[in-house]
Amino acid sequence: MQTITEMELAGYSQLLGREQNAIQKFKSYAESCEDPALQKLCEEMAQRHTQHYHTILNELKK
Q1: Rounded to whole angstroms, how far apart are CA atoms 35 and 1?
Q2: What is the value of pTM for the model shown?
Q3: What angle in degrees, to the nearest 10, is found between the helix axes of 36-61 and 6-32?
Q4: Shortest CA distance to 10 belongs to which of 51, 48, 60?
Q5: Residue 62 has pLDDT above 80, yes or no
């Protein structure tokens, strides 16, 4: 990956923060759900955002 600018780095930082926020929210929703189908969906969404987070981090490490 090329050298990134300070502005790009700030954007990535915001994006990672948003992914972390989504992970926390969906985990919280899953814990509070009484409907098993909805709980499963929230858990899957938390996992998807975790994957997004790790993908972004891996791109930044290149």
Answers
A1: 44
A2: 0.87
A3: 160
A4: 60
A5: no
